[in-house]
Design goal:
Elements lengths: L3 H8 L3 H9 L6 H14 L5 H4 L8 E5 L9 H15 L4 E5 L5 H10 L4 E4 L7 H9 L3 E4 L9 E4 L1 H14 L4 E8 H5 L3 H16 L3 E7 L3 H12 L7 E4 L5 H10 L9 E7 L11 E3 L2 H18 L25 E4 L3 E2 L10
Parallel strand pairs: 1-2, 1-3, 3-4, 4-5, 5-11, 6-7, 6-8, 8-9, 9-10
Antiparallel strand pairs: 10-12
Helix pairs in contact: 1-2, 1-3, 5-13, 6-7, 8-10, 11-12
Amino acid sequence: MATIKDVAERAGVAPSTVSYVLSGSRKISEDTRRAVQAAIDELGYHPRASARTLRSSRTNVLALAVPRVPGEYRAIDGRFAIDVTDAARGHGYDVLLITEGDGAGALRRVARSGLADAAVLMAVEERDPRIEVLHELGFPAALLGHDDHAALPWTDLDWEAAVALAIRETAAAGHRRIVFLSSAEHEIAARRGYAVRGLDGARGATAETEAEVRVLSSHRDPEKLGHRLREALAVRPAPTALVVQDLILLPHLLGAVSSAGLRVPEDLSVVLVGSLPDELGIRHLPRIDLPVAEMSTAVARLAIDAISAGSDGRPPSSQKPTAAPASTAPADARHHLIEPRMAGPAIAPPPSG
């Protein structure tokens, strides 16, 4: 890793000048400041990079990487941020939030600077570029979600089983024409694990049941989502049930159902997959809740275990991490897969006639 001396040589100044630029303790000409900053950027230098290599130099901070699109609100992001923070505090750790879109550059800066001891990644994609950065730098981490190709500890709801369970239960209630509203198009295109596995679950359940399941991808634009949904509900013979994985725009979705002249559940049963636990506005709907508290507790522990274990993420031999129940836990105890369960009222049967 680059040192302050390397930066000074590249910029053609003394090491003390680099220190003054970084600290702002002395007035430096704009030309000199720009030369130093250019050298820092070219070399990827961070003031605490050398301290990062010392295992005794711990910050007791976890970096939580939550890709954010400015102006978009996702309640699930805030819920996980709070619960991961609470879980980390229980281990004596604080949380640093990273919201950069792709996250790779920000993770690289945090890892090199020693601002945190480990990272927790949300919205994990297949072949996630952030994971490549973590491997490259040997930076400990754990995942909320998982990438089958990443040798990192992770925790996740079994999304494939969750969507399959919701569709099977809906079919068991007598529904033969079902619309499955999957994750949004951009999430599927990004190959985010929950989106891809949800589609797999829908396909598997369709093959198992006698129901006709139409897969409809959601959209981040409320107007486009409403238009798609109204078109799907206008097909004849009409669908009698709607299974929803993308819940970000749930109020708009229910508004579209109402504007189509349909009552829930009298005319259309609505079943949710991945809802926030204890959300007041959905208690009247059958659903599979996302186990946010369990996932947050597990990922904080896995990340902290990885710090002690080193870059390969293997749990220390002196510790015995809590695994998922034997019926759902993979052989590797670093992986915590959670079995889905139905909650709320029973799924209403289709309207007669």
